[in-house]
């Protein structure tokens, strides 16, 4: 009788997860498998020759230009993640611990305001702000602080990092805020009752308990920024390409879909490895803190 009940519950559970599983399989897995299959095919003139080859991956790992662009993508994504999470944590901490409960929803509402506009529009706005005749240069010139507009605040890595950090800030603030909200305040009071300072209580109690939110924020920011295409193209002026820009060139401009697919698979594999390494190091950190 008990076995029948468990079997019925299992069938009910499978029936509930079947629609989203099929949806994920069709929408996510099918394109990824297609890209993976294309990466092992041969490029012909304006067509893909269905002949198995490893030449695409050999070219990816042997080409110095590809290595340089991949390292740049990792560096930019790492800098964006670091800047975004470091700046997002104090905001999330303030909203969670300093703002009265009845006003937290208003603060969260304000944090999500950037989502009201398109990501592309926000990138164009930063281009206007940082441009040669943009807001910053016009203001500094009008105040007499500079004689000529600054040329180093746009079309470089710093401007790309600034734009991406602003674009993904809400994605970092919200998971950290959720993790901080789950912390039992009595634990913090107990730490202070035992003679710990606020700084040591934060380091020994608050930060370890908030690490799940920090991890989520890190991965949410790092994974999409390494493959960002619009910002390097507009804010970088096409002079500082990242891996997504290189994939676009191979896929569309050069019509070399096998090589473009190999680049995409390699980038996804590197992101997966870096993410797993980070999760492993974080688990070790939590064990040490315990």
Characterization of this structure:
Helices cover 77% and strands 2% of the residues. It has 290 residues and is mainly alpha-helical. It has one domain (64-289): MetI-like fold (Orthogonal Bundle), CATH 1.10.3720.10. It has a two-stranded antiparallel sheet with strand order 1-2. A hairpin with a 2-residue loop joins strand 1 and strand 2. It is globular, with a radius of gyration of 24 Å. The model has no long low-confidence stretch (mean pLDDT 84).
SSE map:
Layout: H1 2-38, E1 42-44, E2 47-49, H2 55-62, H3 64-98, H4 101-111, H5 119-130, H6 135-142, H7 157-181, H8 185-193, H9 198-226, H10 230-234, H11 243-253, H12 257-289
Helix pairs in contact: 1-12, 2-12, 3-7, 3-9, 5-7, 7-9, 8-9, 9-12, 11-12
């Amino acid at each position: 009788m008990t076995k029948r009940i468990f079997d019925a519950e299992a069938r009910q559970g499978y029936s509930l997860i079947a629609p989203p599983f099929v949806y994920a399989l069709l929408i996510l897995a099918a394109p990824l498998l297609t890209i993976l299959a294309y990466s092992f095919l041969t490029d012909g003139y304006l067509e893909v020759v269905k002949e198995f080859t490893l030449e695409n991956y050999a070219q990816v790992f042997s080409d110095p230009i590809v290595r340089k662009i991949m390292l740049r993508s990792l560096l930019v994504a790492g800098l964006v993640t670091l800047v975004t999470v470091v700046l997002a944590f104090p905001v999330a901490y303030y909203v969670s611990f300093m703002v009265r409960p009845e006003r937290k929803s208003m603060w969260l509402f304000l944090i999500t305001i950037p989502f009201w506009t398109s990501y592309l529009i926000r990138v164009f706005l930063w281009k206007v702000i940082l441009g040669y005749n943009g807001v910053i240069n016009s203001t500094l010139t009008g105040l007499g602080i500079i004689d000529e507009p600054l040329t180093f605040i746009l079309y470089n890595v710093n401007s790309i990092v600034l734009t991406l950090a602003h674009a993904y800030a809400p994605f970092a603030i919200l998971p950290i805020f959720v993790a901080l909200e789950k912390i039992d305040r009595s634990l913090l009071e107990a730490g202070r009752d035992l003679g710990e300072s606020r700084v040591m209580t934060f380091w020994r109690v608050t930060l370890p308990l908030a690490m799940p939110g920090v991890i989520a924020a890190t991965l949410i920011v790092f994974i999409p920024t390494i493959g960002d295409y619009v910002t390097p193209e507009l804010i970088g002026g096409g002079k500082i390409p990242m891996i997504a820009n290189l994939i676009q060139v191979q896929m569309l401009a050069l019509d070399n879909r096998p090589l473009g697919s190999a680049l995409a698979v390699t980038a996804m594999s590197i992101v997966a490895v870096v993410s797993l390494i980070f999760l492993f190091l974080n688990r070790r950190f939590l064990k040490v803190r315990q």
